[in-house]
Amino acid sequence: ASGAARSAAADRNLQLTKPPGALGRLEDLAAWYAGWRNDPRPRITAPQVLIFAGNHGVAAQGVSAFPVAVTAQMVENFRAGGAAINQLAELAGARLDVHALDLDRPTADFTQGAAMTEAEVCAAFATGWTAVDPKTDLLVTGEMGIGNTTSAAAIAGALLGGEGWAGRGTGVDDAGLARKAAAIAQGLAANPDRSGLGVLMALGGREVAAVAGAIAGARARRIPVILDGFICTAAALCLHVEDARALDHCVAGHLSAEGAHDRMLAALGMQPLLSLGLRLGEGSGAALAIQVLRGALACHSGMATFAEAGVSGA
Amino acid sequence: ASGAARSAAADRNLQLTKPPGALGRLEDLAAWYAGWRNDPRPRITAPQVLIFAGNHGVAAQGVSAFPVAVTAQMVENFRAGGAAINQLAELAGARLDVHALDLDRPTADFTQGAAMTEAEVCAAFATGWTAVDPKTDLLVTGEMGIGNTTSAAAIAGALLGGEGWAGRGTGVDDAGLARKAAAIAQGLAANPDRSGLGVLMALGGREVAAVAGAIAGARARRIPVILDGFICTAAALCLHVEDARALDHCVAGHLSAEGAHDRMLAALGMQPLLSLGLRLGEGSGAALAIQVLRGALACHSGMATFAEAGVSGA
């Protein structure tokens, strides 16, 4: 991030017609964004929402409330404009791109070994990296994949340790939750590599790897990212354990209602922008948070200074 | 609120292409809004932000970090488009109206008796009531008035009891905070009436009464309201103690960083939509929350059903 732009933004912030600090977190967000865009007075004009979809071999363990066919059906729904993310992307004036990754070729069941080969995880990561429009000024990553809260929970368990990462996902019952926890335990035992990229390959999925690739690709182009919920944060975690600065260009869009998302965010030292009990994925929570960040920049870049407005200071 | 529209909205919600409950609080917001608008599939197309400004006799007690002249200067800034609320209202596509209430005639200092006469509080209340555009479909109330966190804290103390309602406001120092707490204690002693409207008259201000009037006027026209922070919530509290259903058409837009706003919201049984550390007033937090509510309705009213999209259920 550009220290000069960030510090020029912080200087401007002190001159705006409001008591110092009165816009709270919006002030910090504006300075952070200014730094990444290397512009002391930026606005968000071209946000992009990327949805990656993938299928998971571990779904055969009965870990989801929905059949696997729903992944492809929801991709059609995204393309037809009928999903929640379509409405939220439109509201935010964001471009929406949907990438279905080999849906007819699910990953391998990770209870038996690695979900992906090195070639597969690299291809998915590259799909994510190249899906980022270099002209966008804010990226939201979303995902769809029946079984992918199981994958994300396994990633968290592998990288952060501890128990209780399995949650209800799309609404699995008690028996399904027990199967999910068992599958995660088996997956951790069957895949001992604990490096970030090793875990992404062994316990992730194509859409999870693509999210990680998009996050990394955005950083290379100085494009700030709003992370969505449980699955996107797990993807981000794989980057974070490789390099603690890998997520400096990211902000957590929301706190998901999915089980242990709060513990994942705490491990990343991130405070979510929203906390509204969403647990849908698709990038929905992050897309809703676009307007918070845009509001921060609208205030920062649009407000009059005390001198311009002839307002007395404290 | 219309039970029929609300229940039709709840029925529709169950058919939308997402797991039941996956949009969390957005689903409840959509049903609540549908009931008030008597429309099972509504959208927000004409939001209005109202700012009321007033001056306070109690400012003479040295309770604010800013001089009293700032109230009128900020009104000019609102009219010129330079304040935070201008940027946030524009982002939300909201009409913004500014009402300055007798700025050259501050209320009486409530440490010595009632801040307003019955005629004054009624006139201010009526200004608020009539300022609501009957054609708007969502109201945000905002305020500006040097000294008005002192007024709001006194209202909360009178109606809810307990100590510690005084906060830093626009950024008063320790000595100012002590003067503020003392002025509040004096005000409570000097004004023994504990009815909602009695407290509004004795400890409120013109802009506080206008906010209360706008909230009440919106209810009469079935217009949902997003409450802003500490001062607007105090105004709402005066209505709530008169009739526990008076705020059924309101949602708390955000949790302010101003001292005891959380206790005020708890007393009203309200959960804020946002919690971003704002403490500016002007309706800023509520205006930012317009997009959350709009997002809830965009999803509710715009999404495809399982049948429409050909997506399998759980």
TrEMBL record, chains A, B:
<dbReference type="InterPro" id="IPR017846">
    <property type="entry name" value="Nict_dMeBzImd_PRibTrfase_bact"/>
</dbReference>
<dbReference type="GO" id="GO:0008939">
    <property type="term" value="F:nicotinate-nucleotide-dimethylbenzimidazole phosphoribosyltransferase activity"/>
</dbReference>
<comment type="function">
    <text>Catalyzes the synthesis of alpha-ribazole-5'-phosphate from nicotinate mononucleotide (NAMN) and 5,6-dimethylbenzimidazole (DMB).</text>
</comment>
<keyword id="KW-0328">Glycosyltransferase</keyword>
<protein>
    <recommendedName>
        <fullName>Nicotinate-nucleotide--dimethylbenzimidazole phosphoribosyltransferase</fullName>
        <ecNumber>2.4.2.21</ecNumber>
    </recommendedName>
</protein>
<keyword id="KW-0169">Cobalamin biosynthesis</keyword>
<dbReference type="InterPro" id="IPR003200">
    <property type="entry name" value="Nict_dMeBzImd_PRibTrfase"/>
</dbReference>
<dbReference type="InterPro" id="IPR036087">
    <property type="entry name" value="Nict_dMeBzImd_PRibTrfase_sf"/>
</dbReference>
<comment type="pathway">
    <text>Nucleoside biosynthesis; alpha-ribazole biosynthesis; alpha-ribazole from 5,6-dimethylbenzimidazole: step 1/2.</text>
</comment>
<comment type="similarity">
    <text>Belongs to the CobT family.</text>
</comment>
<dbReference type="Pfam" id="PF02277">
    <property type="entry name" value="DBI_PRT"/>
</dbReference>
<keyword id="KW-0808">Transferase</keyword>
<dbReference type="GO" id="GO:0009236">
    <property type="term" value="P:cobalamin biosynthetic process"/>
</dbReference>
<dbReference type="InterPro" id="IPR023195">
    <property type="entry name" value="Nict_dMeBzImd_PRibTrfase_N"/>
</dbReference>
<feature type="active site" description="Proton acceptor">
    <location>
        <position position="282"/>
    </location>
</feature>
